């Protein structure tokens, strides 16, 4: 095993993305010494550069595969996974999504393609900063932490990104292929949590109409006693 790999694993960083600062603290010694060790590890394939200043151990040295959602958080600090990616994660849409789509607190969109870790798409939205993480949940998968939008937040982020106007529940159910069962699982507090998130009037109108539509669905849904 490469010496640097052994040091990283012993420090408990086998499954984490390493920054230059963390690397310096773990390895110690002079800049030249660290540079030499990192260079040899990169050449041997034991260490993989994600981008400048960010590194991960190669797959065979990790306890668990690197999760793209956790990596997205490191690639753009403060971002969270949303839109189609989060909807697929929650099982709200049937299609597989091969791009990790995130909402970024930055002003510009950013696309990152990595030959080892896939395609990442970061998009800014017109949001109130104080409510940036409303409806966003922290998940831990294989010891890796990640921020993922709730299903309703992911759907609304997609609506805002596409500038989609309310066209009735048909667009949600047929256009997005979101099953009625999933919509029925939403609660009043899920909608309330998002009422101060979006800046544009059209987004808030969509949210309001969606809540009314879901209420109508629930009102028309026969109870177990009625079905019996």
Number of domains: 2
Beta-strand percentage? 15-25%
Helix content: 40-55%
Shape: elongated
The average pLDDT score comes to 92
Lateral arrangement of strands in the main beta sheet: 4-5-7-6
The tally of helices reads 11
Unreliable stretches? 224-228
Helix/strand-derived category reads alpha+beta
Terminal CA distance reads 65 Å
Oligomer: single chain
- Count of individual beta strands: 9
Q: How is the biggest beta sheet arranged?
A: 4 strands, mixed
User: What is the string of helix and strand elements?
Assistant: HEHHEEHEHEEEEEHHHHHH
* Rg estimate, integer Å: 22 Å
Give a brief outline of the structure.
The protein is α+β, with helices and mostly antiparallel strands. It is 43% helix and 18% strand. The protein has two domains: 3-61, Arc Repressor Mutant, subunit A, CATH 1.10.10; 68-219, no CATH class.
Architecture blueprint of SSEs:
Layout lengths: L2 H8 L7 E2 H8 L3 H14 L2 E5 L2 E4 L10 H8 L4 E2 L1 H7 L9 E5 L6 E5 L3 E6 L12 E6 L2 E6 L1 H12 L6 H7 L4 H5 L3 H5 L8 H20 L3 H4 L1
Parallel strand pairs: 5-7
Antiparallel strand pairs: 1-3, 2-3, 4-5, 6-7, 8-9
Helix pairs in contact: 5-6
